[in-house]
Amino acid sequence: MARVVVDVMLKPEILDPQGQAIARKLPQMGYEGVVAVRQGKRFEVELEGPADEAALERVNKIAETLLANPVIENFEVRVL
Q1: Which of 7, 19, 55, 59 has its CA 20 to 30 A from that of 79?
Q2: How far apart are CA 32 and CA 24, in angstroms?
Q3: Could you tell me what percentage of the chain is helix, strand and coil, using 3-state DSSP and rounding each to the nearest 5?
Q4: pLDDT tens for residues 6-64?
Q5: Which intervals of the chain form a coiled coil (predicted)?
Q6: Residue 25, pLDDT score
Q7: How many other β-carbons are positioned within 10 Å of the β-carbon of residue 39?
């Protein structure tokens, strides 16, 4: 069994209000020096068998069609 991680982040040109709200709150909480925050999503996908090229291509297709909105989000697939 293999475990694959899909990290999904908003594209840099897309406004991230949640990240901005976190960044504004940090100095009030005593955390100085943070310039920006971007929020994202992480998915862990367990696969039967090895994380070979075909399996990673399937996970890429899953991420592209279900886990991420390719219009506003980028994603990265990696093996744990």
Answers
A1: 19
A2: 10
A3: 35, 30, 35
A4: 999 999 999 999 999 999 999 999 999 999 999 999 999 999 999 999 999 999 999 99
A5: none
A6: 98
A7: 13
**Residues near 22 by beta carbon (within 8 Å), at least 6 away in sequence:** 37, 39
* Model pLDDT, residue 62: 98
The architecture that CATH gives domain 2-79 is 2-Layer Sandwich (3.30)
Q: Is the dihedral of CA 46, 71, 74, 34 positive or negative?
A: negative
pLDDT score, position 2: 95
Record the pTM.
0.88
Look-up of token digits 């840099």:
12
Residue owning tokens 């399996």: 55
What pLDDT is attached to residue 42?
A: 98
Compute the residue count for the chain. 80
Task: Report the distance separating Cα 32 and Cα 40, nearest Å.
Answer: 22
SS3 assignment, position 72: coil
